[in-house]
Amino acid sequence: MKTVLITGASDGIGRALAYKYAKDGFRLVMVARNEEKLMKLARELKNTTAIVKSKDLSDMKQVNELFQELQQEKISVDVLINNAGFGLYGDFKNTSAEEELNMIDLNIKSITLLTKLFLPDMIIKKSGQILNVASSAAFQPGPLMAVYYATKAYVLSFSEAIENELKGTGVSVFVLCPGPTKTSFSDRANLEQSKLFQSGVMDVKTVADAAYTGMKRGQTLIIPGFKNRILAAAVRFMPRKTVTGIVRKTQGTRVRKV
Asked: DSSP letter at 83?
């Protein structure tokens, strides 16, 4: 039985992917901070083995603990899905430095370390898949979410680079870049008033389906939604200051009429 490790599995895209892999007969290792949610999900999944690991992956000590525990339990990971992450909305001068540093730890450092830890075994087996969840935010700077956009640019660049390095090893790397998606992410990021999230969002099932299908097709860069694909391509041909201005306007707070 093949094993998939999914971080951020308690909610959103990670949860939806857990159902996809369970249906396909994978053993699941599900990781998130909220053990109660993970246990509930494990009970809901049918015809599979679901292993729950309650970890705060913004803490590199706990990232290493996760790897060591799986080594001790002789669990070999065939598919690694680095999905855990969060954002923060607001002017950089006003946002919490502590939260943003925590975001960098989770969105960048944990993905890098998890990939570094689980990759060697995949190379030895000459088989494996790694999916890193970035965002459509990865393609441009993001005023009002400056640090979040920057972390996702890292994920995109990192994923495409190691995908090139790993050619011929049997290990495939994919990067998922969804647009705004209805998850608890928007609540934690305080995005309720953002025009971006009020103008329409994708549902997690659609995004998870696109990720799963894209991986099966060997599609390195997976951008769910025609509109998101067009926008990702368009920003490459626009002046950077124009792009930044458009993002600022899109991200701005929508004033509600009384």
From this structure: -
Q: Is 148 a catalytic residue?
A: yes
H or E segment to which residue 131 belongs: strand 128-133
pLDDT in tens, the chain (258 residues): 899 999 999 999 999 999 999 999 999 999 999 999 999 999 999 889 999 999 999 999 999 999 999 999 999 999 999 999 999 999 999 999 999 999 999 999 999 999 999 999 999 999 999 999 999 999 999 999 999 999 999 999 999 999 999 999 999 999 999 998 866 655 555 555 555 555 568 899 999 999 999 999 999 999 998 888 988 888 888 888 888 888 888 887 644 333
Which long-range CB contacts under 8 A does 119-122 form with residues at least 24 apart? 119/171, 121/76, 121/77, 122/77, 122/78, 122/169, 122/170, 122/171
Among the listed residues 148, 149, 154, 212, the single catalytic one is: 148
CB 111 within 8 A of CB 132: yes
> pTM score, two decimals?
0.90
User: CA-CA distance, 160 to 158, in Å (whole number)?
Assistant: 6
- 221: nearest Cα among 157, 170, 169: 157
User: Which structure tokens are listed for 93?
Assistant: 């001068």
Q: How far apart are CA 149 and CA 135, in angstroms?
A: 8
CA distance 6 to 16: 10
